[in-house]
Amino acid sequence: HAVKAVPYLNEGRELVKWFGSCTNIDVHKRALKQKDEFISIASHELKTPITSLMGALQLLDRMKNDPSPKMLPSLIERANKNVKKVNTLVGDLLNVSQLNAGQLHLNKARFKLGPMIFNCCEHILAEGRFEILIEGDDSLEAFADQTRIEQVVINFINNAVKYAPASKQIFIAYTAGQGFAKISVADKGPGIPKDKLQHLFDRYYRVDSAGSQYSGLGLGLYICAEIIQRHSGEIGVDSQLGEGSTFWFTLPCSS
Ligand code: ADP
């Protein structure tokens, strides 16, 4: 507890009593501790890909005079992968600070959902490890910030690739409801336990955070939820353990 008090003196300047207030600072302490923990996790998450990147660059440097460097393609791939990881982490951190400061501005315009979804799949299709099955109503349009909505869809797709690697297939649907469009991204991965589902969109939340074999800051879905909320849409997940997960969101729309 933090105590603030002032003395109350009588006319003879004798101390009669103390006037004071007592504030419970446990909440602040807990917030500070959470912040410290987060900084330590975030630094570790950043350090790992940077170390790997430095290793790749050192090897590349050593082979600069090698006339036929066999390891070149794999080292470039390793460097690229790690730079992308750092970029995603820093992007998430930036988004959260923009959200906290109320500075995530939306640039709304009308666009077709079909081509937007195709844009989001290109990077995974190029890799060739996953098949993506897309089904939807091609006339569907949304009035939204296209870049931000792509960010949400890409996050869902990347999570499916990351947490459901054995799924091999991702199913994307975009359908019309009454006054809204619904977009869903489904995988046939391990699914998520029922009691964890309600926390999934919370800031910093990770299922099995301590023992997780996957890296992450638990910010991706939180950012997605904030983006969709700012579009007056809804976001959610349906999941069955052992069968897979379907992440979805809605956007208000006229047709
Ligand atoms: P991060 O990936 O950084 O942990 P997210 O906010 O993107 O953060 O995800 C929160 C948690 O939700 C993840 O830690 C993971 O456990 C779980 N999750 C997300 N997508 C899936 C999925 N497709 N299948 C299983 N678990 C998932």
Automatic annotation (TrEMBL):
Span of domain Histidine kinase: 41-255
Q: How does it sit in the membrane?
A: Multi-pass membrane protein
Enzyme Commission number: 2.7.13.3
Asked if the keyword Ribosomal protein belongs to this entry, the reply reads no
The answer to keyword Transmembrane helix applying to this record is yes
State the compartments where it is located: Cell membrane
The molecule here is called histidine kinase
State the organism named in the record: Mucilaginibacter pankratovii
Q: Which residues of the full protein are shown?
A: 236 to 490 of 490
